[in-house]
Amino acid sequence: MDDIPRDRLSGPLRRGAVKKHVAAIHVSGKLTLLQRKLSNVLLLNAYDTLTSQPRHQIDARTLCLMIGYNSNDMETLKASLRGLAETVAEWDMLDEKGQQEWGVSALLSYAKLKGGVCEYAYSPALAEKLHDPKVFALINLNIQRRFTSGHALALYENCYRFVRTGSTGWWSLDLFRRLMGVADSPYYDVYKQLNAKIIKPAVAEVNKTSNILLTPETRKMGRTVTDIRFLIAENPQLSILDLDDGEGLRSTDLYARLRGLGVSDRLARQWLGEHGADHVRQKLDYVAGQDGVKNAVGYLTKALREDYGSEVSPRNAAPSTTRARKLERIRDLAAARKPTQRDADKRLFMARLDGARRDDFERHGWMSALNAEAIATFWEELSPGAFDGID
């Protein structure tokens, strides 16, 4: 599994003892790209209390925003949660006493949506494994957002935990096909086709997109490829520094502000590590200056991802007299329209928007800070000369 917080590139995937068995936990590769990202965000949200609380909660719209899909699309969220509950995680490792341990568990033991909140849980045995960095490496959210292929993200997740050892070790092709989610397709029983359609494209995307570089190697019996492993190196272009132990960050006022807003410990430290204190503070100030924000954590998530407030606007700086007058004029123009015209105006303008700008307009209407210039242009086109005399 996306994901998730910030146990960075060189996170401890095993402790110093070279002879200690590197634990392996495999998640079925049949998850879609969206489900993998969802899985990682849920783990990030739950990580601080993974072994101390039986249930975890997150605002459903915040969850959608963090993954990057329509925050009103609850049907897609339901389908993705259903997929996680139907997906198997399997581990086979040595325990602390050197005894072999095999286990299997649904990735989520249950999930439910009620009152705009997503509640979910892991089985106790799986939660214990997911919380141990020797067993399972948490994936950085900023990196997972870069992936466009589910196979590439699956390969990255299964290789990343071995970054400290430099190699995944040998996997049988049967196991590799399971990890990639193609075990049920006879087409990929032929290595030539598996290599061309799955391995090469996935390795290329991981090397281009993530903080590690992969080199595949194969082992044969006669002329038949039977096993594959991936050599792993840090990507010097995209490497990310480790987080400290957290104590330094936790003592700052900025960390306290994030926690006061409802941001989890892990996510607060991840954001500070990824974006830097100055950038996070700027976005916090920006969000604090918005009117009518009902979901501050979700809005801050988008502000950091989409760089809200980077342009001067009436919401993030003292508006100039000219801008204030334009806003007043736009209010008057909109108020003068008939109700059916107002709806048509909004639909016409929204057709020009996408992504964060569309979301901001849906939230703030004609007072949208992200669309201030475009809104002025729209009304000038709709009512030529509307701003004459405002200079």
UniProtKB/TrEMBL annotation:
UniProt xrefs under Pfam families: Rep3_C, Rep3_N
Q: Which GO terms describe its biological process?
A: DNA replication initiation
Span of domain Initiator Rep protein WH1: 18-159
Similarity comment text for this entry: Belongs to the initiator RepB protein family.
Question: Where are the membrane-spanning stretches?
Answer: none
Organism superkingdom: Bacteria
Alphabetized InterPro entries for the sequence? Initiator_Rep_WH1, WH-like_DNA-bd_sf, WH_DNA-bd_sf
User: This chain belongs to which protein, by name?
Assistant: Initiator Replication protein
Concerning SUPFAM superfamilies, the annotation shows: Winged helix' DNA-binding domain
The GO terms describing molecular function are: DNA-directed DNA polymerase activity
